[in-house]
Protein backbone atom coordinates (compact mmCIF):
# COMPACT_ATOMS: atom_id res chain seq x y z
CA UNK A 1 0.00 0.00 0.00
CA UNK A 2 1.37 3.39 -0.97
CA UNK A 3 0.10 6.47 0.84
CA UNK A 4 1.01 10.08 0.28
CA UNK A 5 3.37 11.49 2.91
CA UNK A 6 0.76 14.09 3.94
CA UNK A 7 -1.77 11.32 4.52
CA UNK A 8 0.70 9.38 6.65
CA UNK A 9 1.46 12.51 8.67
CA UNK A 10 -2.25 13.10 9.24
CA UNK A 11 -2.72 9.47 10.35
CA UNK A 12 0.17 9.87 12.77
CA UNK A 13 -1.35 13.06 14.15
CA UNK A 14 -4.63 11.28 14.96
CA UNK A 15 -2.88 9.14 17.55
CA UNK A 16 -1.75 12.26 19.41
CA UNK A 17 -4.83 14.49 19.25
CA UNK A 18 -4.67 15.62 22.85
CA UNK A 19 -0.95 16.36 22.78
CA UNK A 20 -1.28 18.38 19.57
CA UNK A 21 -3.99 20.66 20.94
CA UNK A 22 -6.97 18.90 19.40
CA UNK A 23 -8.22 18.12 15.95
CA UNK A 24 -8.47 20.34 12.92
CA UNK A 25 -11.71 20.22 10.99
CA UNK A 26 -10.58 20.48 7.40
CA UNK A 27 -13.63 19.54 5.35
CA UNK A 28 -17.40 19.32 5.42
CA UNK A 29 -16.96 15.54 5.57
CA UNK A 30 -14.83 15.90 8.72
CA UNK A 31 -17.54 18.01 10.37
CA UNK A 32 -20.28 15.55 9.33
CA UNK A 33 -18.38 12.55 10.70
CA UNK A 34 -17.66 14.33 14.01
CA UNK A 35 -21.35 15.18 14.25
CA UNK A 36 -22.39 11.59 13.51
CA UNK A 37 -20.17 10.36 16.35
CA UNK A 38 -21.41 13.03 18.74
CA UNK A 39 -18.27 15.12 19.18
CA UNK A 40 -18.76 18.08 16.83
CA UNK A 41 -19.38 20.59 19.62
CA UNK A 42 -16.81 19.36 22.13
CA UNK A 43 -13.89 21.64 22.96
CA UNK A 44 -10.51 20.00 22.36
CA UNK A 45 -9.20 20.84 25.84
CA UNK A 46 -12.22 19.32 27.61
CA UNK A 47 -12.54 16.02 25.71
CA UNK A 48 -13.01 12.88 27.78
CA UNK A 49 -11.14 9.73 26.78
CA UNK A 50 -14.23 8.42 25.00
CA UNK A 51 -14.78 11.70 23.14
CA UNK A 52 -11.15 11.72 22.04
CA UNK A 53 -11.48 8.13 20.82
CA UNK A 54 -14.64 9.03 18.85
CA UNK A 55 -12.83 12.04 17.35
CA UNK A 56 -9.97 9.80 16.25
CA UNK A 57 -12.42 7.32 14.73
CA UNK A 58 -14.21 10.16 12.92
CA UNK A 59 -10.90 11.41 11.57
CA UNK A 60 -10.01 7.94 10.30
CA UNK A 61 -13.42 7.44 8.67
CA UNK A 62 -13.24 10.84 6.97
CA UNK A 63 -10.19 9.63 5.01
CA UNK A 64 -12.45 7.54 2.74
CA UNK A 65 -10.12 4.55 2.84
CA UNK A 66 -11.00 0.96 1.99
CA UNK A 67 -10.26 -0.31 5.47
CA UNK A 68 -9.12 0.78 8.90
CA UNK A 69 -6.85 -1.22 11.19
CA UNK A 70 -7.67 -0.39 14.80
CA UNK A 71 -6.29 -1.75 18.05
CA UNK A 72 -9.12 -1.93 20.59
CA UNK A 73 -11.15 0.98 19.14
CA UNK A 74 -13.92 0.56 21.71
CA UNK A 75 -11.72 0.43 24.82
CA UNK A 76 -12.52 3.99 25.98
CA UNK A 77 -16.09 4.18 24.69
CA UNK A 78 -19.31 3.97 26.65
CA UNK A 79 -22.19 1.82 25.34
CA UNK A 80 -23.57 4.71 23.29
CA UNK A 81 -20.18 5.26 21.65
CA UNK A 82 -19.83 1.57 20.89
CA UNK A 83 -23.30 1.57 19.28
CA UNK A 84 -22.33 4.58 17.15
CA UNK A 85 -19.14 2.87 16.02
CA UNK A 86 -20.51 -0.59 15.34
CA UNK A 87 -24.07 0.33 14.38
TrEMBL record:
Q: What Pfam families does the database record attribute to this sequence?
A: ABC_tran
Species name: Acinetobacter baumannii
Q: Which InterPro entries match?
A: ABC_transporter-like_ATP-bd, P-loop_NTPase
Domain called ABC transporter: residue spans: 40-75
Keyword Magnesium assigned? no
Q: Which residues form the signal peptide?
A: none
- Keyword Nucleotide-binding belongs to the record: yes
SUPFAM superfamilies given in the database record: P-loop containing nucleoside triphosphate hydrolases
Q: What is this protein called?
A: ATP-binding cassette domain-containing protein
Keywords, sorted A to Z: ATP-binding, Nucleotide-binding
Q: Which GO MF terms does the UniProt record name?
A: ATP binding
